[in-house]
Amino acid sequence: MTDTTTAPVNAGIAHGLYTEGEPIADTKAPAGPIAGKWTQRQFDAALVNPANRRKLDVIIVGTGLAGGSAAATLGEAGYNVKVFCFQDSPRRAHSIAAQGGINAAKNYKEDGDSVYRLFYDTVKGGDYRSRETNVYRLAEVSANIIDQCVAQGVPFAREYGGLLDNRSFGGVQVSRTFYARGQTGQQLLIGAYQALERQVAAGTVEQFTRHEMLEVVVVDGRARGIIVRDLVTGEIETHLADAVVLGSGGYGNVFFLSTNAMGSNVTATWRAHRKGAYMANPCYTQIHPTCIPVSGEHQSKLTLMSESLRNDGRIWVPKNREDCDKDPRQIPEEDRDYYLERIYPSFGNLVPRDIASRQAKNVCDEGRGVGPLVGDFRRGVYLDFADAISRMGKAAVEAKYGNLFDMYARITGENPYEVPMRIYPAVHYVMGGLWVDYDLQSSIRGLFVIGEANFSDHGANRLGASALMQGLADGYFVLPNTIRDYLAKGPFDKLSADHPDVVAARESVESRTARLLEVNGERSVDSFHRELGNIMWEYCGMERSEEGLLKAIDLIRGLREEFWRNVRVLGAADTLNQSLEKAGRVADFLELGELMCIDALHRRESCGGHFRAESQTEDGEALRHDDEFLYVAAWEFGGGEALGEMRQPVLHKEDLVYEAIELKQRSYK
Amino acid sequence: MNLTLKIWRQAGPRHRGELKTYKVKDISPDMSFLEMLDVLNEQLNARGEEPIAFDSDCREGICGMCGLMISGEAHGPEKTTTCQLHMRSFTDGEVITIEPWRANAFPVIKDLVVDRGAFDRIIQAGGYVSVNTGAAPDAHATPVPKPNADRAFVAAECIGCGACVAACPNASAMLFMGAKVTHLSELPQGQPERAARVVSMVEQHDEEGFGGCTNVGACSQACPKGIPQDVISTLNKDLRAALRG
Amino acid sequence: MTSSRSATTARRSTIGLKILMAGTGIVFVAYVLLHMYGNLKALAGEEAFNTYAEHLRTIGEPMLPYGGLLWVIRVVLLLSLVGHAYAAFSLWSRAGNARRTKYAAVKTAMRTAWMRWGGVFLLLFVVWHLLQFTILKFSVNPDRQGVNVQQNPYELVVASFQVPWNTLIYVLAMLALALHLSHGTFSAQQTLGWTMTSHAYRRAKMVGHAVAAVIVVGFLIPPLSILFGLIK
User: Fold this and answer.
1) What span, in angstroms and rounded, lies between the C-alpha atoms of C37 and C220?
2) Pick from B42, B138, B153: which is nearest to A155 by CB?
């Protein structure tokens, strides 16, 4: 094993990038055996008298699987709910784009699946960096999700007998994934959306579309509301409540190019972070290996294709650089390097996402990438179905992958039945997010965080078909049970919009908005975003090193300084202004990016989606250091009043305790 | 390639709008249509003109947020969403007219952005199954014949983009509504509320000011998801059944 | 969702109007097919044609008075016409209101415009047709005038269609009718919910085209035969 340096002090501390604070002592999970904890918690959580519920106001930000399902469920329970989304309808939330499926421990196939096995697989898949108690609960409620969705009319795939079909997904050996063709996310989201609209009609939920949350109102240590901008009129509005729930999704767009939607952003969670909510494991990023490569400088986003393509496609690049711009069909077999099959003979093309991604980057960095030159590099590898077509026949390949091939052809203009597909990894999901306890409550009382927005149940790496499961578990079943324990203490003192803390929150939003329009510099918002994305991808992407991360932190600080001096945002504040919306989001990404790099720098180990060049085995495999890093890194905002100012963040460690599962180092050789 | 774009500019809901002409140069055929507009917006920003407002989010054809009338065709010449339309579908030197969806039920907010809240209100009128969280029986309790499940799925693929309304000569939302009614009517879970649902949704549809259906099928032709016209037949039949009581 | 939203509002809804349009349209299709059958009697000669015309008036006697059934049919047709036109104009105006700002560039189906303007043309034609053969019974043929012509249905028909411009009006009207019915017949089936599978959908389209073809051919045989002197 190559472990070149033995730093006595963490590099981050050595460079004065952060300080360390008190560890997190308690996650509020009940005592007792793991299988009984959730039942116990549901029993212990105080009840709210049905007559009192309509006196309790709950704000929910985000209408994806987590936010939408939570809003519907809390509305059904009779709470007074306000739900916000920046899109024109709750149905647009990016959960809609998930293709593959949703896991549930139903064991309908009688193939040995169980709650415990789903729990075990998820912890192992997360490379032993997730919290056992939360993951067990996730596996426990997974079965209820399917029942709920079917009752709503979600059209899952069925067999001829009329029963639900399952498939195995992401390399697990049981068939526990429920799916609706390649549009599982869409169908589940529409189910939650319809349940939500039903509550809007019933008057329990008030819906605010084209509204963006720009600040959280914290009074006496409790989250008591949010400040939003009506994106159509530009009006800054104050909404007060007894509790605030963030279901605002992930921040993969910090990389500029990702498979996230154009509007996906960190603003809601970052604003909460600045107000005291800890940000946990922000460096854990999932990079998906089978995306359509960048075609030029104009690229605005990346499109993912289902991983299932790796079941039959063979991945290769030319052995010689000179062949990279040749027609791949003219390159003879002996000049091709099927590098995954070569390096990992037993798993071959089916190695986990992070390994497939990193190896693709390695061969491209060697100059053996294929496809168009973007900048100085060709960033793509071939995913070749020629063997599959000659083995199974074109019709069988079409039946299995037809819609994916069509999508590829539409985007690239190439016919994948004739020419090998080109793929390249892209940022897809972030495991990091706001820190929450067992009740999904953040370090600010009354502020709950659900779905991808929290640091979640996925540890350092998420398994396929688990994101949908977590979003709906949080929204339908977990949050509604845990938030009542908090709400039972309310209604809290009536808060006036004139309260100094409320006014201050509102004024900070107004002045920040005004400032963005006043700078009137030379560079567009997109150009800053693109540059930040390049820095993040280069130094905080698939492979991270101390040197690179230190450099990235410097670059980001410089870019952030320039942003507030030189950004150009045209138009006015009192109208629909998409540049202004983007500017606010990019300003927050410029702060988040630095924290991600600090987190990545401090975690001098490789685990799941986080690969440190300094921590690998002789074979180039990720090497964990359980003795040093078996904890959740929860970062407290270090303060900073001026726009873009960030002082040293404070690290709080939450030790991970494994009682039900034994720690193992993974191997795919 | 070089293109001439005639784009609808309208400062706000109550302002008068007009088509303005812009030229773009060196457009790559591999760009998506919206990336071409991104390029134009960067140019406008650089010369101090306010960028053109248009909606888009997922840019992979599933969220339904984008939608432009491109030279008289909803989502342009290919059967896909605007975000999945690529510039290779156009020719060098072409003049392209870009307008917002036109329907009184979809008022223009700014430039190419319209308000499709009417769709949410149609769903609120009954486009759901009334089942509270936690009240569901086991998922295998009710088998669904595969043909019904498949047809429900085809209808449920609707992304709510509004192209059907935009393309319809009557600005009718029957395809959108028919898709939802068919999705739920094909499933056992949708039966208890079948009659009440359709009556209520149709009433909301009319209240929003959408037009009636003349069965010409422009909606299905424009639909990026290929929702077939027969869902409107199911909608009609369900309404007739509801009228009979 | 409340079921109290009453059936009355549903009847007045756009779909309710469409159902009215479909129902009345089907009445017209049936009537037009019968009418065409009667017209083809002209090929069998004067006696057969006039007997048929007379029989239409005596059918149902003595239960019904002379010409009674004809009046029943006329009342049904008139009510259908009122219903059909009411639904059409209501929907037309709704559609106009549904899109007050028009597109600068349009590539939409022309069929809707055809149905509407074609429908108006057909309405005008029906007025002309009724004046000519039912109400005023006048001959447009300067060579064949008089009470004999007016009182003899066969004579009146032959006299009228020997005039080229008159026949041209009928040819145009029948083409308009064919266009109207090829879409209208399909549309009625779609509105009544008979096209819920792709098979039924294709069948409905075919039925529409078939009805249109039969009607245009069947109706044009007698006038063209007269014009070209096959019937005298």
Assistant:
1) 12
2) B153
CATH topology of domain A26-284+431-625: FAD/NAD(P)-binding domain (3.50.50)
> Is it true that the peptide bond before A30 is cis, omega within 30 degrees of 0?
no
- One-letter amino acid of A13: I
Mean pLDDT of C137-161: 89
Q: How many CB pairs under 8 A join A and B?
A: 215
Domains and CATH numbers, chain C: 13-227 (1.20.1300.10)
**Tokens at A523, concatenated:** 């560079």
ipTM value for the complex: 0.98
Enter the DSSP assignment of C43: G
Which tokens in the block code for residue A29? 């999970």
**Do the beta carbons of residue A284 and residue A635 sit within 8 Å?**
no
- Structural domains present in chain B: 3-110 (3.10.20.30), 116-244 (1.10.1060.10)
Across the beta sheet with A279-280, what order do the strands follow? A19-20, A650-655, A631-636, A279-280, A433-434
Best of B41, B44, B62 to mutate (most A CBs within 10 Å, chain A):
B62
> Across-strand partners of A83?
A60, A207
Strands A567-568 and A631-636: unpaired
Tokens of A348: 């071959």
Query: Domain boundaries in chain A?
Result: 26-284+431-625, 288-426
- Token pair of B77, please? 């010449």
- Return the pLDDT at A653: 97
Would you call B134 and A148 a contact, using CB atoms and an 8 Å cutoff? yes
- The one-letter amino acid at B90: F
Q: What is the 3-state secondary structure (H, E, C) of chain B?
A: CCEEEEEEECCCCCCCCEEEEEEECCCCCCCEHHHHHHHHHHHHHHCCCCCCCCCCCCCCCCCCCCCCEECCEECCCCCCCHHHCEHHHCCCCCEEEEECCCCCCCCEEECCEECCHHHHHHHHCCCCCCCCCCCCCCCCCCCCCHHHHHHHHHHHCCCCCCHHHHHCCCCCCHHHHHHHHHHHHCCHHHCCCHHHHHHHHHHHHHHCCCCCCCCCCHHHHHCCCCCCCHHHHHHHHHHHHHHHC
Q: Which two tokens stand for residue C229?
A: 């002197």
Backbone torsions φ then ψ of A556, nearest 5 degrees: -65, -40
Does residue B187 contact residue B128 with C-beta atoms inside 8 Å?
Answer: no
Sign of CA pseudo-dihedral A86, A89, A95, A98: negative
**Each residue of B8-43: pLDDT tens digit?**
999 999 999 999 999 999 999 999 999 999 999 999
Enzyme catalytic residues of A: 353
CATH class of the region A288-426: alpha beta
- Local mean pLDDT, 10-residue blocks, chain A (669 residues): 57 92 95 96 96 96 98 98 98 94 95 96 94 97 97 95 89 89 94 98 98 98 98 98 98 97 98 98 96 92 89 94 93 95 89 87 93 88 95 90 89 94 96 98 98 94 93 98 96 94 97 96 97 97 96 98 97 96 98 98 95 90 94 96 92 96 79
Per the structure block, which two tokens stand in for A287? 């990079």
Q: Which of residues 88-127 of B touch A (CB under 8 A)?
A: 88, 109-110, 113, 115-117, 119-120, 123-125, 127
Contacts of C94 (CB under 8 A, 6+ apart): B170, B211, B212, C14
- The amino acid occupying position A646 is M
Could you say which residues from 15 to 74 on chain C have a Cβ atom under 8 Å away from some Cβ of chain B?
15-19
**Residue A2 burial (CB < 10 Å; 0-12/13-18/19+)?**
exposed
Confidence of residue C2 (pLDDT cuts 50, 70, 90): very low
Residue with tokens 């009542």: A484
- Residue A178 pairs in a beta bridge with A102
Is residue A618 within 8 A of residue A2, CB to CB? The reply is yes
Distance, in angstroms, between B169 CA and closest chain C CA?
7
B76, HSE (Cβ side, Cα atoms, 13 Å):
21
